[in-house]
Design brief:
The protein is built from twelve helices and eight strands. With about 350 residues, the protein is of the alpha/beta class. α4 packs parallel to α6 (about 100-120) and α6 (about 100-120) packs parallel to α7 (about 155-170). It is globular. The chain is about 40% helix and about 10% strand. The relative contact order is 0.13. Strands 1-8-7-6-5-4-3-2 form an eight-stranded parallel sheet. Residues about 340-345 have low confidence and may be disordered.
Length: about 350
């Protein structure tokens, strides 16, 4: 079996566990400006502290340790440290020229840790999901209130940047591509377009059932109205991305498990793909911190499992290996959501 076939066969039998937050864990290290600088960037004119993706080049030991902590906690899938890995997002730091290298090294690090854990326990193979974040620009909305028609980025620019990121992630050894934290579906469509172009160039099948690299999509509901930032309902979001044979579609970030539940149900009721969820550790307090402990979060996530809504579970902002361990332990008691082809009304 190749990696895609192996992943598909496991996903049919158990709820897969995704890791937790990278940023939350990096904060624990209390890193300084110097930690974010490689020798080549010693004299870089812009401050680099906070550019977490850059740590894959400057402090790979930190990234490795965080990946290992999540695998120890029971994660099946590691996300690469590439949430802001596009040239578009790296432009803020004047490091757009390092985009490919950041993605390649991040995937390589995650691959090494995943393979080491698989070697120790071949009965629990570990996988690497190349993370493609939303970028810091939106193709659907104007950043200028006085000019609603203005766009800070075009579809083609996004697709080009995502293409570079996809190549780096695949070359570094990613098993899966995860387009995540989608607040603007047009950005996600650019990412999907880029993935399709790279697959075509490399003769990779688009469908994971045919041995292709599985594609995961995860949107973000930003408020109580149940819409993405660009105004789509959960169902509209699902329809917008379902033209590609996805491995999974899901929701992450912005909300805690309790708040995510109704929108997750919409996905579970309407998609022929696997469903993923990795909520935040509750909602942030007035200082922007996440207070929800592992047990409380696991109790809320259990509702997803009881109702049979999910195939892949993990954590987003504020989650730690403790949260993932609690969720992994709980998930062992439940069957994954049964994937059935949804009747589209054509029959």
């Amino acid at each position: 079996m190749n990696r895609s076939e192996l992943l598909l066969s496991i996903a049919k039998k158990k709820v897969l566990i995704l890791d937790g937050a990278m940023g939350t864990m990096i904060q624990r290290y209390q890193l300084s400006e110097e930690d974010f600088r490689t020798p080549d960037l010693a004299d870089h004119p812009k401050p680099l502290k906070g550019n977490n993706d850059l740590l894959s080049l400057s402090r790979p030991d930190v990234v490795k340790a965080i990946h290992a902590a999540y695998l120890d906690a029971g994660a099946d899938i590691l996300e690469t440290n590439t949430f802001s890995g596009t040239s578009i997002a790296q432009e803020d730091y004047g490091l757009q020229h390092l985009a490919y290298e950041i993605n390649f090294q991040s995937a390589k690090i995650a691959r090494e840790v995943a393979d080491a854990f698989t070697l120790k326990n071949p009965d629990k193979p570990r996988f690497v999901a190349g993370a493609l974040g939303p970028t810091n620009k939106t193709a659907s909305l104007s950043p200028d209130v006085n000019d609603p028609g203005y766009r800070a980025i075009s579809f083609d620019q996004l697709a080009e940047a995502y293409k570079e990121q996809v190549k780096g992630l695949l070359d570094g050894g990613a098993d899966i591509l995860l387009v995540e934290t989608i607040f603007d579906t047009l950005n996600a469509k650019a990412a999907l377009f880029a993935i399709q172009e790279v697959f075509e160039e490399r003769n990779i099948p688009l469908n994971p059932e045919e041995g292709g690299i599985p594609i995961m999509i995860s949107g973000t509901i930003t408020d109580a109205s149940g819409r993405t930032l660009s105004g789509q309902t959960t169902e509209a979001f699902l329809i917008s991305v379902s033209h590609v044979p996805l491995f999974s579609v899901g929701l992450n970030c912005a909300l805690g498990a309790k708040e995510l539940r109704p929108y997750l149900k919409v996905l579970a009721d309407n998609t022929p793909f696997f469903v993923s969820a990795y909520p935040n550790a509750g909602l942030p307090n007035e200082f922007g911190q996440y207070d929800q402990g592992a047990t409380e979060m696991a109790n809320q996530v259990e509702e997803f499992l009881k109702e049979g809504h999910v195939n892949i579970l993990g954590g987003c902002c504020g989650t730690t290996p403790e949260h993932i361990a609690a969720i992994a332990k709980l998930a062992e008691k439940y069957q994954p959501r049964k994937v059935e082809l949804v009747n589209t009304g054509d029959e």
